[in-house]
């Protein structure tokens, strides 16, 4: 299935770009609850996107990210506005995970096409990619913004064929978010779950094609190394 | 707004019926991770419903509840099948929270109409209500099953007018789940959040009419005590 891949389509946050390390830089300002805060933030942020999908109430990911952070700061009794600003700013300048630049370079050398498909709105996504060392790797940076609904709605995954002209069966989709991986697999993409945290597989629809620990295993998985 | 109420519509799990106390009876069998397990179970269960909504992949709440439990048992390294069976069985025989019988009786005496609107499928919901001391209180036990999608999709909240013939503005909706309360408020129900845990308000669409600590405050809130 993966041997037919024409294009690798990556989730951005948590898959290519490292949210945790950016936030870690602000650990001293946040104090002892830094880890709990950032874990809750990511969790609430994603939950709010699912809830807005069910409510038919799309809003830009940037807004949802801020609303989730406000909840988490309140839950942790943190009212210092400078922490909010620092964390939101950190979200705009994430770095790729260590193995990402070499992996993308190897795939490019083999002629593989590469794209991003993200919940992020273009105003937050495109500057982050442009400022990162892999800015030239992607032929398309696809945002859910154009369909007004978040993952794992099928309208999001359909953007790949609409914009890149590749049938779902020839796409290799990669996400570190298990629910995104299942959503993509349920839609019809051969999908690799980048299980960076070694979590159990979620009990969700969609059968995963493979599971890797990080992206360094991808070229050999696709037979292009 | 609440003064116009013709019918009070309650969420079931966590609002009328106490999930935590039922699971607590099995604490000794589960061991030290009992609290963490049950918290994760409820969280995953609800997340799976939101994800299935986005994927267009409805399944009975009973199935989703079991899939969530399987994830949580794996995440906690628990492989004893008797624990799974005990917890699933516990879910079928939950007790109402202590203040519920007297509250519902007071509302009934005042002529208030009462109903349940739940994610639960009828096979799990109806026996639980029938076996509980408030079995006669409700004119309708409405399940998402008939619309094939979970809360907070508007199709679920529309069931109240369709089945009970009451316009949304004359419904008082009650949920201990903040996201359900926001979903109902966004739909158009005057909504009271039963904030049993004293949590911060979620940053979600929909404006809540009121917030109470438990249901004992409801009759006076509606002016019927």
TrEMBL record, chains A, B:
Enzyme Commission designation:
3.8.1.2
Q: What class of enzyme is it?
A: hydrolase
Q: Which positions make up the signal peptide?
A: none
- UniProt xrefs under CDD domains: HAD_L2-DEX
The reaction(s) catalysed by this protein are: an (S)-2-haloacid + H2O = a (2R)-2-hydroxycarboxylate + a halide anion + H(+)
Spell out the Gene3D superfamilies in the cross-references: HAD superfamily/HAD-like (3.40.50.1000), Putative phosphatase, domain 2 (1.10.150.240)
Could you say which protein family the record assigns here? Belongs to the HAD-like hydrolase superfamily. S-2-haloalkanoic acid dehalogenase family.
Q: Which PANTHER family match?
A: HALOACID DEHALOGENASE, TYPE II (AFU_ORTHOLOGUE AFUA_2G07750)-RELATED, HYDROLASE, HALOACID DELAHOGENASE-RELATED
Q: What is this protein called?
A: (S)-2-haloacid dehalogenase
């Amino acid at each position: 299935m993966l041997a037919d891949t024409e294009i690798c389509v990556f989730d951005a946050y948590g898959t290519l770009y490292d949210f945790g390390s950016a936030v870690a830089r602000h650990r001293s300002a946040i104090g002892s609850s830094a880890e709990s805060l950032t874990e809750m933030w990511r969790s609430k942020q994603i939950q709010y996107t699912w809830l807005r999908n069910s409510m038919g109430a799309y809003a830009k990911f940037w807004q949802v990210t801020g609303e989730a952070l406000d909840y988490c700061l309140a839950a942790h009794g943190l009212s210092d506005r400078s922490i909010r600003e620092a964390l939101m700013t950190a979200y705009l300048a994430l770095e790729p995970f260590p193995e990402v630049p070499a992996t993308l370079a190897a795939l490019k050398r083999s002629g593989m096409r590469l794209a991003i498909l993200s919940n992020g709105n273009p105003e937050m996504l495109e500057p982050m990619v442009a400022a990162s060392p892999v800015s030239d790797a992607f032929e398309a940076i696809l945002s859910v913004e154009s369909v007004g609904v978040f993952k794992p709605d099928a309208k999001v995954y359909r953007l790949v064929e609409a914009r890149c002209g590749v049938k779902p069966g020839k796409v290799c989709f990669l996400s570190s978010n298990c629910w995104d991986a299942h959503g993509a697999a349920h839609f019809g993409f051969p999908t690799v779950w980048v299980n960076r945290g070694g979590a159990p597989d979620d009990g969700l629809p969609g059968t995963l094609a493979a599971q890797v620990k990080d992206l360094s295993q991808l070229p050999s998985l696709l037979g292009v190394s």
